[in-house]
Model the fold of this input.
Amino acid sequence: MIKIDTFIAIETKSLYSYTIEQLQQEFISIQNNDALQILAKNLTKSKGHFLHGAIIVEIDGVPITSLFDWDDCDLLWPGFLTMVIDYLRDGFGETSISLNDIQWTLEKIRTKPNHLVIFSSKRSMGAMTKGICTEQDFLQAVLFSANQYLTSRQQDTRTYTLNGMKEKYHDLCQALKQF
Done:
C-alpha cells in the first residue's frame, strides 16, 4: 500500500529542527482542518513567493521520504510530477531540485501481471531509502495527492506560483490516458 501526503510548515522560518520528533511538531498535513488557515498565513508572510513543506511517501508503512525533505512545495510538486512523466515515457525518472540536496528516483520493474515501481530517496548525508509497489497503485496515489495539493492551494488567491504544477499535472493526466 502506498500513501502520499503533503505537509506544510506551521511557521515559516529559514531552518527547522534536526529530529523527526521536533519536525512533526513543526509541520501539518494539508488534510488537517487547520491547514488552509496556516497556508494563508504562511503565504501572506512570504508574500506568496514560497510555501515550505514536504511530500511524504510511505510504501507498506515504511517512510521513503520524510519531513527532513522539506523545501518549497511549489517547487517540489512540479519536480515530482516531472519525474513521474519521465518515468511513464522512459521507465525511469529522477528529480534533484531540492535546496536540501534530496534526490528522488523512479524505476520500472516489468513483471506480470502488474509492473512494479521502485521509488528511492537519497539524502545529502548519503542515506538512501527505497520502496516497491505496483505501478498502478503508485500512479493513482500520485494523481490523488497532487490533486489534493492543487485543490488546497487554489483556495488561496495567490496561485500564480502554481502554473508550473498545473501544467505538469495536466501533462501527467494526458500521459496516463496514452499509457
Observations:
- The mean pLDDT is 90.
- Strands lie at 2-9, 27-29, 52-59, 62-63, 71-72, 92-95, 103-109, 116-122, 128-134.
- The chain has five helices and nine strands.
- Residues 6 and 149 are 7 Å apart (CA to CA).
